[in-house]
C-alpha cells in the first residue's frame, strides 16, 4: 500500500477501481467520478464487488480510513493505495467531483 497524491491519481491506469469509503452522509458533498461507495466498515464484507486483478485506490475524507482500508486490502493480496489528504485535499485542489448516485 502506498499513498498517492492527486497528480499520481490523475495519471493512474484508467482501469483503476476507486472506492469511496466515507459514510453515506459524507458523500453528499461530492465524489470522484466513477468511484464506488463502499463504507469502510463494509469493505471486507463486500470484497466480491472488487476485481483483485485491478488496482484499487481508496478515498475517504482525510486519508485515515482509506489508509486502513488500503492496508487491509494489500494484506489480502490486492494492489491497493490511498489518496493523500482524501477528499478534503481533492476539493481544496479544485479537482472535479460529481453528485453521488
TrEMBL record:
UniProt cross-references to PROSITE patterns, sorted A to Z = RHODANESE_3
Q: Where is the Rhodanese domain?
A: 12-99
Please name the SUPFAM superfamilies in this protein's record: Rhodanese/Cell cycle control phosphatase
Pfam families for this protein: Rhodanese (PF00581)
Gene3D superfamilies associated with the record:
Rhodanese-like domain
> Highest taxon of the source?
Bacteria
**Name of this protein:** Rhodanese-like domain-containing protein
Give the species.
Arthrobacter cryoconiti
Lineage, highest ranks first: Bacteria, Bacillati, Actinomycetota, Actinomycetes, Micrococcales
Amino acid at each position: 500500500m502506498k499513498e498517492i497524491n492527486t497528480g499520481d491519481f490523475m495519471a493512474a491506469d484508467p482501469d483503476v477501481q476507486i472506492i469511496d469509503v466515507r459514510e453515506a452522509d459524507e458523500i453528499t458533498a461530492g465524489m470522484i467520478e466513477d468511484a464506488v461507495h463502499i463504507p469502510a466498515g463494509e469493505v471486507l464484507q463486500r470484497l466480491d464487488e472488487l476485481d483483485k486483478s485491478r488496482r484499487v485506490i481508496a478515498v475517504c475524507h482525510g486519508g485515515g480510513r482509506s489508509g486502513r482500508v488500503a492496508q487491509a486490502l494489500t494484506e489480502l493480496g490486492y494492489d491497493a493505495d490511498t489518496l493523500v489528504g482524501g477528499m478534503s485535499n481533492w476539493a481544496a485542489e479544485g479537482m472535479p467531483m460529481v453528485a453521488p448516485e
